Amino acid sequence: MSARTQHTNILYAVLGFVAVVIIVAAIGFLALDRDPDIIQGQVEVSEYRVSSKVPGRILEIRVKEGDFVKAGDTLAILDAPEVRAKMEQARSAENAASALELKAQNGARKEQIQGAFSVYQQAKAGFEVAEKSYQRIQRLFDEGVVSAQKRDEVYATYKAMEAQMKAAQSQYDMAVNGARMEDKLAAAAQVGRARGAVQEVNSYIHETVQTAQMDGEVSDIYPKVGELVGTGSPIMSISMMNDMWGTFNVREDQLNDLKVGSELTAFVPAFNKEIKMKVYYLKDQGSYAVWKATKATGQYDLKTFEVKARPVEKLDGLRPGMSLIIK
Questions:
Q1: What is the three-class DSSP state of 35?
Q2: Which of 246, 223, 207, 220 is closest to 48 using CA atoms?
Q3: How far is the CA of 83 from the CAs of 152, 157, 190, in angstroms?
């Protein structure tokens, strides 16, 4: 074989190798270009925490994690002896205020009223005698039998007895009428204040029995029976399974037509099926979130947006934490 033929064969081999590399690179580039971007999210659910306004010891927990509860169901019972002691104090204060109000409304005792009436009758009798004496002396004075000095002395006695009778009548009327209106109003206000204290403590007693506020599933229980919990400390979490949504972190160059009110299709690996979801929330995650940083001239940083969407139709078995895939 000549040298020229060998060079030709080598050239063909090199060209063939280069062609194969170019073809493979083109196929790989096209294949990679066709693969869609994958966005992974997860299912979220609304939760509320059950907690008490008063500190106490866990006496009983009537549910387990995973139980479905309805609004009004009893979840836990606390023991708070301090609250019961405060209730006794509040009730005693209410009873004392009620007694004072009753005293103000009833006025003086019967014996006091009877005593004031007797004094009044005595003064009245003295006044009547003094009045008759004065009338007799006045007639004698008119006839010239007695002097003016004697008439004036009897008149003074008459007026003194009249004033004494009026004072006794005033004391009797005051005993009959009882306390002043201001005292009665003050006593009634004290009763209202005491009753308010009883209602306040009663509300704390109700807090020792924790009930479900809404339907849901018990997702977490924190303390054990016998442990102490403070004011506002969470006892358990309830997941409202009828309020689910999916959360996705999407770069802004992947948003495309995603906007509030638009629909998307998400793949659920747990069920190997797709579901329709409707976007209801879209917001950038701020400077602390993941960015796609670029340094080349003319390019820019890409921010990440949080996208939330709710299933259009209910999917039985969908649970919080399950993955959602968007292509």
A1: coil
A2: 220
A3: 76, 68, 22
**CB of 71 closer than 8 Å to CB of 213:** yes
Cβ–Cβ < 8 Å for 294, 253:
no
pLDDT in tens, 113-150: 677 778 878 888 888 888 888 888 888 888 877 888 88
- Alpha-carbon dihedral angle through residues 288, 289, 294, 300, given to the nearest 10 degrees: -90
Phi, psi angle pair for 161, to nearest 5°: -65, -35
Phi-psi map region of 81: left, alpha, beta (phi>0 left; psi -120 to 50 alpha) = alpha
Amino acid at 318: L
Strand intervals (E) in 178-229 = 209-211, 216-221, 228-229
CA dihedral 307, 312, 315, 320 (to 10 degrees): 20
Distance separating alpha carbons of residues 17 and 23, to the nearest angstrom: 10
Residue whose C-alpha is closest to residue 101's, from 188, 33, 171, 174:
188
Q: How far apart are CA 239 and CA 49, in angstroms?
A: 9
Looking at residue 219, its amino acid is S
User: Crossing angle for the helix pair 148-177 and 110-143, nearest 10 degrees?
Assistant: 160
| Of 41, 115, 64, the residue nearest 217 (C-alpha) | 64
The owner of tokens 């992947």 is 254
Q: In this structure, are residues 94 and 198 in contact, taking their beta carbons and an 8 Å threshold?
A: yes
The per-residue pLDDT for range 56-107, each reduced to its tens digit, is 999 999 999 999 999 999 999 999 888 888 888 888 888 888 877 776 666 6
